[in-house]
Specification:
Strand content of chain A: under 5%
Largest interface: A-B, 42 and 48 residues
Largest sheet of chain A: none
Radius of gyration of chain B: 21 Å
Number of domains of chain A: 1
Distance between the termini of chain B: 36 Å
Structural class of chain A: mainly alpha
Structural class of chain B: mainly alpha
Number of helices of chain A: 7
Oligomer: heterodimer
Largest sheet of chain B: none
């Protein structure tokens, strides 16, 4: 059971690299959707079956795999932005940075005072690596949609860590968090739309009217 | 049970606001909900129900203080909204009304919940519901502000979630039942794994600190406060800030119980607080945009709150009192600045001058609010700031106390340089006329709030002082 979960986590980390290396929006959105579905399957593997678990699995797959990608896809279609051109930092450097962060995540996870039953699993390194990938995407990309994708990846990283402690998070809180994420992405989608209408671009580097003189 | 009704009343109001088709009738839902919310708050302050069976819901003294501030501020803003939206009939106010009411519901939930996970969900909800309100003016500048606000606060809150998970993990490593309930966490705090606890507190402070606008995480604040309508600014500065501060107070409670971590947390709070005040003092000087100036004033005052909390002991009372004073005074300033903005349709001091002749009431309120917020007697912020700074000196923290006074002085001068010409300067000739006039509905609410601030400064009611003392007692080191 542990090894299958580990394979899935490796898949999650591979998707991180796909996100870092690709400039095509549509492709990135699919990749995040796949990552979301994988994350939805994970709790089912590591915990014994229960009603609580089934609800979580279904709602995560629905939210992260279907609804959120649909919302972002919608924004892409309306704004007609297909590619991330000229990020603040090129694709090769971000990929290299991603690799560095991922390996550091493994080193770092070894030093953490983990509970004995979590020592040999990939959860913690995968969580840190995904978190860092999210940050990397957030800070190096200019397009608003790429930044939303970065935020999602960041959230996914946090979610992986949360898998170690499903018992601490009651269903109500988990559902609330997921709902907040959904509404948040929905609002971001609308805002992106308005940005593109107002600036005829969704380059966030153009958002610089507000600053101190 | 009564508390769940309490949370759902504003939601019901939001539904009603959604159904009402008429743009002129819809804003009246706000004061109706606000007044009933205030009435329930007043009742609950005296007869708080006991803790719910699972321990999730409980209105403790800290929650009561924040609830009182939010409820009062919202009601005043709600009455003001009727007058304000009367001038903004060119735009549908459906989203605004629904957003305000949903946000009130989420803020109420923040004050009554004792489960840190649920608290997080509620804080995140307030973040999301405020975003469309900042965008009310639908122009390029407001969309920029909304995007920055949404992204920075969402990422910040996500980091707070990571901090919560670390907190839960520290219970797991210590072989306790993993939980995020405040009571059990405080009970088992001394035995939890210190490494994880430390990491948890850092992430929680960064996360909620960015929501609160503590420097260096304040960058979204001037933009959002500057572009949002005055009444939204008032709720951001007096409502959301206090919700985030309450979240930090909850974290502080666990810190206290863990004994070892509290020194670090206090130092971090004092450091961030002083940095906030310093940055506010720097950027306030020669600030031409008076709404951005108010945003920096908010950065300054969250700094004061953080310093009060970091100093502990006698300053706790001052910090909790200041939470209330800052919220209400900021309300006065934002509402009156909204009026001035409406009347001049500009918000920079090169055009806006001599508000006292053009708008005697709003201009006067703005001036009075300025005098109050900079900590001059007889208004109540003087009392709370005085109590913080005096306890800094009593505790022997001379450097903190000295810097505190220095920054207050610089802020006072910087703010006066913007406010005084704005209010009392020579009126700009040849201004284009606007249809805004001071009326009872747009001036009465901030005037009322100003009176409350004055009253709290001259004669603070005994029940409030008792409440503040009870709240401070929850935050004191027990040894």
């Amino acid at each position: 059971m542990g090894s299958f979960a580990d394979q899935l986590l490796v898949l999650v980390m591979l998707i991180n690299f796909v996100l870092l290396g690709s400039s095509r929006m549509a492709f990135c959105i699919r990749a995040v959707a796949v990552q979301g579905v994988v994350l939805g399957i994970l709790p089912g593997i590591i915990h014994p079956f229960s009603f609580h678990l089934a609800t979580i699995t279904v709602s995560i797959i629905l939210a992260k795999g279907v609804i959120i990608p649909y919302l972002i896809d919608n924004a892409v279609r309306k704004t007609q932005i297909k590619r991330e051109i000229e990020p603040f930092l090129g694709y090769v450097p971000t990929l290299v940075l991603g690799a560095v962060f991922t390996s550091l995540a493994f080193v770092f996870a070894l030093k953490l005072p983990l509970a004995p039953e979590h020592q040999d699993l990939l959860f913690v390194p995968a969580s840190i690596a995904t978190l860092m990938t999210g940050f990397l995407v957030l800070t190096t990309r200019k397009k608003a949609i790429s930044q939303v994708i970065g935020y999602l990846v960041l959230e996914n990283g946090i979610f992986i860590f949360g898998l170690l402690l499903t018992e601490a998070m009651p269903v109500m809180v988990e559902a609330g968090a997921l709902l907040d994420l959904l509404v948040g992405i929905f609002v971001m989608g609308i805002v992106i739309n308005h940005i593109s209408r107002e600036f005829s671009s969704i380059d966030t580097s153009r958002l610089q009217a507000l600053k101190e003189e | 049970m009564i508390l769940s009704v309490f949370v759902s009343i504003p939601l019901l109001g939001a539904l009603i606001a959604w159904v009402i088709p008429d743009n002129r009738v819809r804003p009246y839902v706000l004061p109706v909900v606000g007044l009933s919310h205030l009435a329930m708050t007043a009742w609950l302050l005296g007869n708080a129900p006991p803790q719910s069976p699972g321990g999730w819901i409980w209105l403790d003294p800290l929650g009561k203080i924040v609830l009182l501030c939010i409820s009062l501020l919202f009601t005043v803003c709600a009455v003001y909204a009727v007058g304000y939206l009367g001038y903004r009939q060119e735009r549908s106010n459906r989203v605004l009304c629904m957003g305000l009411l949903t946000c009130l519901s989420a803020m109420t939930l923040v004050t009554i919940c004792q489960h840190l996970g649920l608290l997080w969900v509620a804080v995140e909800t307030t973040t999301v519901t405020m975003a469309p309100l900042i965008y009310f003016n639908h122009n390029a500048r407001s969309i920029e502000a909304t995007w920055k606000y949404l992204l920075i606060c969402s990422v910040g809150i996500a980091l707070a979630l990571l901090g919560l998970l670390f907190l839960a993990y520290s219970t797991h490593v210590a072989h306790r039942e993993a939980t995020l309930l405040l009571g059990p966490l405080m009970f088992s705090a001394p035995e939890l794994n210190q490494g994880w606890l430390h990491a948890a507190f850092i992430f929680l402070l960064v996360g909620y600190g960015s929501k609160m606008g503590l420097a260096p995480l304040h960058t979204w604040k001037p933009d959002a406060y500057g572009e949002a309508p005055g009444l939204v600014g008032a709720l951001l500065a007096g409502g959301l800030v206090n919700c985030a501060f309450l979240a930090i107070l909850r974290v502080y409670q666990i810190c206290l119980a863990s004994v070892t971590e509290v020194i670090f947390f206090q130092k971090a709070l004092i450091g961030m607080g002083l940095l906030s005040m310093a940055i506010a003092a720097i950027f306030m000087a020669r600030q031409a945009d008076f709404k951005r100036m108010l945003a920096y004033s908010s950065v300054e005052h969250v700094g004061i709150l953080a310093i009060g909390l970091g100093l502990g002991k006698g300053a706790l009372f001052g910090a909790l009192f200041h939470l209330l004073n800052n919220g209400l005074t900021k309300g006065v300033l934002f509402l009156s600045s909204g009026n001035i903005h409406r009347s001049y349709s500009h918000k920079t001091t090169d055009v806006v001058r001599g508000a006292l002749t053009r708008l005697p009431w709003s201009g006067g309120l703005f001036l009075a609010g300025f005098i109050a917020i900079t900590g001059s007697p007889p208004f109540s912020p003087f009392l709370s700031e005085y109590s913080i700074v005096s306890s800094a000196f009593i505790e022997g923290q001379y450097a903190v106390g000295g810097l505190f006074l220095l920054f207050l002085t610089v802020v006072f001068i910087g703010m006066a340089l913007t406010v005084l010409p704005l209010v009392m300067g020579e009126p700009t000739p040849n201004l284009e006329p606007t249809d805004y006039r001071d009326r009872l509905l747009t001036v009465g609410p901030p005037f009322f709030m100003m009176l409350v601030v004055l009253l709290l400064g001259v004669w603070p009611p005994e029940f409030l002082l008792q409440l503040l003392r009870d709240g401070a007692a929850l935050l004191e080191v027990r040894s």
